[in-house]
Design brief:
The structure is a single chain. The protein folds into 2 domains: 249 residues, 2-Layer Sandwich (Creatine Kinase, Chain A, domain 2); 99 residues, no CATH class. 46% of the residues lie in helices and 14% in strands. An 8-stranded antiparallel β-sheet has the order 2-3-4-5-1-8-10-9. Strands 6-7 form a two-stranded antiparallel sheet. α10 crosses α11. The chain is globular. Its EC number is 2.7.14.1. Keywords: ATP-binding, Kinase, Nucleotide-binding, Transferase.
Length: 378
Amino acid sequence: MMRFSTLMKHPADWMTGKNANNEVVITSRIRLARNVRDLPFPGWAKKAERIDSMELIRGKVEALKVMKNGFSHELSELEPLQKQVLVERHLISREQAARGQGSAAVVDRGQRLSLMINEEDHLRMQSIRAGLHLREAHRLLGKVDDALEDELAFAFDADLGYLTACPTNLGTGMRASAMLHLPALVLTEQIGQVLQAVNKIGLAVRGLFGEGTESLGHLFQISNQSTLGESEEAIISRLERVIAQIETHETNARLKMLEDEPNQLSDRIGRAYGTLGYATIFESKEAFSHISLLRMGAAMGYFPEGTMQVCDSMMMDIQPAHLQLHAGAELEPEERDLIRAEILRTRLQSLEAPAINVLTNKNASDEDTTGDLNFENE
């Protein structure tokens, strides 16, 4: 199986954004919760029972064709910093990182598939794809789910569906989500209306690392909340419609900014570029905000093709665990701020300055771009 160091050398398929329209919708994710019949749930199991169930399930997962030459480790075999890196790459949850003996993570070579063993449930399986490709992620994970169901007897009830440790996951056991980059809606102060409308129709809005985390770099995670009484197809279709509408609102907000305040927009992007290129100290939150503006500028033509992928890479590499892995040592926050700034200055040296003069003279569409923020009829 793949070593941790090898996993770190290769960016995930979804991180490169290849062949994906990911200007606004960065990633799509499908997650399935499953438990093995007649085995105690991880939270109730004794240590020996957790180890036994982990070994049983891990062997079946590693044997999958798609996991050939993948990454597989028991959580107790990993250093705390390594576990945090996996969290930052969205390969395991924060809850999984807190687990020790009797829990494991198995990831395919392309980091498209990640299976957490003995997190809250026996299996938390997820698939991540770049852009708005929920169905592609669902198909990929569905094959894994079917293959494992042939090998493991999943706990299932005819009325309640798949049985899970938390009642909120009963039924399909599925969470469908998308990570959206919404800087224009934040800057034009429309984000509150959008998030309120999304919550009103029963969808959840979370930060970069899910429940209980804040939004960094104008990134928001939107997902279904209910899994019982609704089919997987219905959940995905509803989420697709809402995500597509939010994407339209964000695109229109960018066009409106370009039309109404081209100089102010250019100034924001230019200042972000200058600050990233010359600052010597950077906290995470500020760095994310500046990179976010560069990413928006790249999507709007201020920078050459490929700049968005550079921005996505920077957002990953400046996170605390990735920084410390890069430095080869645990660092105090102040030390991380210095190294974060050094990394960003280095990256900006190879990035062309924004083409501000071209875009300040560019005319945007005259149509009304505000739109209706009511998703109830979607």
